[in-house]
Request: fold
Amino acid sequence: MLRVRPMKPRGALRGNAVPPATTNFVALSLLTAPNRARKPNPDDGPPCHLCTARCCKYFAFEIDRPTAAKDFDTIRWYLMHEGIVVWVQDGDWYIEVRTVCKHLQPDNMCGIYETRPQVCREYGASTDEPCEYFTEDLKYDQFFDSDEKFQTWATEELERRKQKRKLARLSPGRKFQSPERK
Reply:
């Protein structure tokens, strides 16, 4: 086994002499040893002290699924504003407003932790919906971060729905099977 020993300073130290700084030296064992720190457990609640404060840099709320051309146009209008994204997850539609909480400190800690709102206190406390620290890769059914991308999708979606209604009218009494979506 390879042994790593700190280098001895060159020359002898006399009296109260201070050894030269060894800030450039890192023991190989520290570089190759596995991290033995205990990993946070979602059952224990959110590890705010380790986080990059994702939950403090946006908020999202559910919106109605668009059904008419006017609904699609309203969502397009939302997306014309900076810091807005719209996404669909498990069939539910959401608008996300990307804005940083005014109480978030530079170290990503809460400036009003003791008096923070209840929604902050409850966020991530459930094992059914753990905080985003434990979420590696969020999956969306749809994700729109620009009005152009949404308009392209909406045009295709409205045309698909139009074709579906047209086929349903031509085949009364028969159930129509929806074609595969892109």
User: Anything to note?
Assistant: Helices lie at 28-32, 69-79, 118-122, 147-170. The chain is about 25% helix and 10% strand.
